[in-house]
Design a protein that fits this description.
The complex is a heterodimer of chains A (about 500) and B (about 350). Chain A has 17 helices and 23 strands. Chain A is of the alpha/beta class and about 500 residues long. In chain A, the strands form five sheets. In chain A, strands 13, 16, 19, 20, 21, 22 and 23 form a seven-stranded mixed sheet that branches. The chains are: A alpha/beta (about 500), B mainly alpha (about 350).
């Protein structure tokens, strides 16, 4: 049997970095093929070459035995290659059918298209109403729009870039069911992920990349997750060390916090209540878009609330602004690094001043002390191993992971009483992620209260003492993180708020 | 194929080199245009750039004009640049300039014919307050009613012009002026005049204020927390809110400062070079200052140089019309070329030009 797609010797170099170096592998028809690797291993560049977004420097591809060199995504789609991106390109204010029509070369009449969308969604078990507004859909439903958009092209090869990062465990099951059905019909699937257990359940073959090179191939079912992890990282990873300790007094308490959404497609927070004690890490899970950004803004002071809704050591702080809260020791690191946690065009020194000015005394009589600011930036770079040529580099010049280390480090080095982080290891490579988690654990060990908002359930279970979940702006009751099963967590994410009472 | 590649940091050399190259290219392109019109290109360039300052025949009149024209441009542009860097678009400096002049002149004329030494400082204060007042209308509307300050501030220019006309023909008209429109001459009355401080230089209080504003703005933008917050709000509004910047307060402050400086420029103009309130008292300094602000890349030193350069081309352009009979549209085209080259070459500071060969598919 000829391979559906055969890749031989693909190389691509960018100024200063080799993204792919002599990568070869083949995908068979009907095969679910995993592409494994850490962030920065070259997975994205490789699939971009297959999808015609990037041209390889060297190497060739053959599709069904015929030379294949797509000049642009349109050519790739015409040849039967479709891709579902990690970040969706959908318009909130348009309906599902309108969004799909926008991506088509010659869209059929709206009614015919809606009928086809319904057919495909039923055939593959992906329920979706063509006339709903995309802005009202959950992340899982939005992904279905993207998948159906691809399936309408009747692809021979479907590329999926980290599809489960935004899904609840139950939604993951639905997706896998669909993918298996597609594969049974002969469609090949190139599945990019770094979640090893998922790959073991779903994929028939795996190619592992590290630093742009292919470092191994395996049949995921036959090997252990630990084996694949070692291939991916090149060394065995240190597990974050944590001590069991009795938590101290309640530091931060949120009581019946209600916030109206500020944008049409934002999420309103409803009756959110929780508390964190000294020395404790509270994990808040949930699929993106369920109120995480709003909760962080309420805790940081960017959106003000009723004074008593948020208290620190019993004193109301709900109406205070960001700097007044910093003075009291409540520090935050938002998810969006560029534009929110840091100003992209400003240097690292200037970005150190952004949140560090008050607690680190970086100004004197209204004038910024640039020498001290530079010193603080240098401290962060040294302590958190931020790879940068120096402190006077624009934040946008740093890679996502390095900037993340800078942003987290900036808050931790200010000695917070309460630290709130949103997606602390998003886009950070495995060893740096481990370092950030260790730093959060150490901070809690030192008596601070830490709130970690994340979509990565494995991460939350690894470091948090208690776990709760945000779902459409409501927060579930927090439960002891030890002993929680994935199924219970899935129910918490899915909205069964009374489960705690039923189980307990 | 030519490709532009964004530089990680703006290139230091080009920040200074690009404007010089732009002036040179303007001379070449402008020279070709003048030659095509049948005029002596070298003579025309010389009369625009050189003669206003150094010719024995003209410099006596022209040299002081440089500071007289550049002063208000720089003073207003400095105020505007603070707001522009924060993403606050005050387009109505012309109106604030007029209201500042009206308030200042009204204060001075109220005590006519007294020559008390506190009258002139009082006029300056009244001018500043007038400018601030006029700028507060769009500022408060933006903060409390979410209107667009570009539109409101621009439209208020026409309201100010109507007020100017009614003042010149009505409530500020010179009672001894035989019914002609226009106020008493403030510049020719001790106590209300804004005199030339050093004879033959054109230096008056307004020019001095412009220089002080340049220095203060430079210090604020590079050293003060306020300057940091202004830059932050302009570059990353969400990060600014996270960093504790109160967006509404910043709007009021930036609009207030730009209004104050525009009002001050209006007062110094009416009590000095213009001399009196008249129907056509405003000549577009408030609008030209927007160009000066951007030409100077919103940087105080850049604005100082841009203001002087633009003033020079205005004076030199008039001279070329007068002496060589070059038509006014050609002079405007020449000034347009200068702006074009300055802005086009700005790309070089932020981007690297790369020649690439097309990859065969």
């Amino acid at each position: 049997m000829t391979a559906l797609l055969e890749i031989s010797g693909l190389s691509k170099a960018y100024p200063g970095v080799v993204a792919n170096d002599d990568v070869s592998f083949a995908i068979q028809p009907g095969e679910v093929h995993a592409l494994l690797g850490e962030n920065g291993a070259g997975k994205s560049t490789l699939v971009k070459m297959i999808y015609g977004l990037v041209k390889p420097d060297h190497g060739t591809m053959r599709l069904k035995g015929v030379p294949y060199a797509p000049a642009e995504p349109r050519a790739a789609r015409a040849a039967g290659v479709a891709m579902v991106f990690q970040h969706f390109s959908l318009f909130d204010a348009l309906s599902v059918a309108e969004n799909i029509a926008l991506g088509m070369e010659a869209p059929p009449k709206p009614r015919d298209l809606a009928a086809r969308i319904r057919d495909v969604s039923q055939a593959y078990g992906l329920p979706l109403d063509p006339f709903r507004l995309v802005g009202d859909l959950s992340a899982g439903e939005r992904q279905r729009v993207e998948i159906i958009r691809c399936l309408l092209q009747d692809p021979k090869l479907l590329i999926m870039d980290e599809p489960t990062s935004v899904l609840t465990p139950q939604e993951v099951e639905i997706l896998f069911h669909t993918l298996r059905k597609l594969a049974a019909e002969g469609t090949a699937i190139l599945y990019i992920s770094h979640k090893l257990e998922e790959i073991r359940t779903l994929c028939d073959a795996a190619t592992i990349l590290r630093l742009g090179r292919k470092v191994g191939a395996c049949t995921p079912r036959d090997v252990t997750a630990a084996h694949m992890a070692e291939l991916m990282v090149g060394k065995s990873l240190a597990q974050p060390a944590r001590d069991t300790h009795a938590p101290g007094a309640v530091l931060l308490a949120v009581t019946r916090l209600n916030l109206r959404a500020t944008t049409p497609f934002g999420t309103s927070l409803q009756d959110v209540s929780f508390s964190v004690r000294a020395g404790e890490i509270l994990g808040i899970g949930g699929v993106a878009g369920n109120g995480q950004d709003e909760l962080l803004a309420a805790l940081s002071g960017e959106i003000s609330a009723v004074p008593d809704a948020i208290t620190l050591n019993g004193a109301p702080i709900g109406a205070l602004g960001p700097n007044a809260r910093r003075e009291k020791g409540v520090l935050c690191a938002p998810e969006e690094r560029l534009g929110h946690a840091a100003a992209p065009e400003m240097t690292l020194t200037e970005n150190a001043v952004l949140t560090g000015r008050i607690r680190r005394g970086l100004d004197r009589g209204g004038f910024v002390d640039w020498t001290r600011a530079r010193g603080f930036a240098q401290d962060i770079i040294t302590h958190f191993d931020v790879r940068t040529p120096g402190t006077e580099v624009a934040a946008r010049a740093l890679s996502g992971g390095n900037l993340q280390k800078f942003v987290i480090g900036r808050e931790i080095l200010q000695d917070p009483t309460v630290l709130v982080v949103n997606q602390p290891t998003w886009g950070v490579d495995a060893s740096a992620a481990a370092a950030i988690r260790q730093a959060l654990l150490d901070l809690a060990q030192g008596g601070a209260a830490v709130i970690v908002i994340s979509q990565d359930l494995d991460e939350l279970l690894e470091i948090s003492d208690r776990f709760c979940a945000l779902n459409t702006g409501r927060l579930s009751v927090a439960r002891d993180a030890r002993g929680l099963s994935m199924e219970e967590i899935g129910l918490m994410l899915g909205g069964a708020h009374d489960m705690a009472e039923v189980v307990a | 194929m030519i490709a532009l590649e964004k530089r990680p940091q703006p290139a230091r050399g080009w920040v200074i080199g690009a404007p010089l190259l732009a002036v040179l290219l303007t001379m070449v392109a402008g020279g070709i245009m003048f030659a095509a019109l049948g005029k002596d290109p070298v003579g025309a360039i010389r009369i625009i750039f050189w003669d206003p300052l150094f010719s024995e025949q003209f410099s006596g009149y022209s040299r002081p004009q440089l500071l007289v024209k550049a002063g208000p441009l720089i003073l207003i542009a400095i105020g505007l640049s603070l707001g522009f860097r924060a993403g606050i678009w005050n387009i109505g400096a012309e109106g604030q300039y007029i209201v500042g002049a009206l308030c200042g002149a009204a204060f001075g004329l109220a005590f006519w014919p007294s020559t008390h030494p506190l009258i002139f400082p009082g006029m300056v204060l009244a001018g500043v307050l007038g400018g601030v007042l006029w700028a507060m209308i769009p500022a408060f509307l933006r903060v409390y009613a979410r209107t667009n300050e570009i539109l409101v501030s621009l439209l208020l220019v026409y309201v100010a012009e109507a007020m100017l006309a009614s003042a010149a023909t009505g409530w500020l008209r010179n009672p001894d002026g035989a019914g002609f429109p226009g106020s008493r001459n403030l510049a020719r009355h001790a106590g209300t005049d804004n005199p030339e401080l050093i004879a033959g230089t054109g230096m008056h209080w307004g020019v001095l204020a412009a220089f002080v504003a340049v220095i203060l703005a430079y210090v604020i933008m590079t050293r003060h927390v306020l300057g940091y917050q202004i830059r932050l709000a302009g570059q990353a509004p969400r990060a600014a809110r996270f960093g504790g910047v109160n967006a509404g307060r910043l709007v009021i402050l930036c609009m207030g400062v730009s209004g104050a400086l525009a009002g001050m420029a209006g007062l110094f103009e009416v009590s000095g070079p213009a001399g009196r309130i008249s129907i056509d008292f405003n000549v577009g300094y408030g609008f030209t200052a927007i160009i000066v602000a951007f030409l100077g890349r919103l940087n105080p030193i850049g604005i100082l140089l841009a203001g002087l350069l633009l003033a020079l081309t205005f004076i030199g352009g008039e001279l070329a019309q007068l002496m060589l009979g070059i038509p006014a549209p050609a002079i405007q085209a020449f000034q347009g070329m200068l702006l074009f080259f300055l802005l086009a070459l700005d790309v070089l500071a932020n981007y690297r030009v790369k020649l690439k060969r097309r990859v065969a598919v």
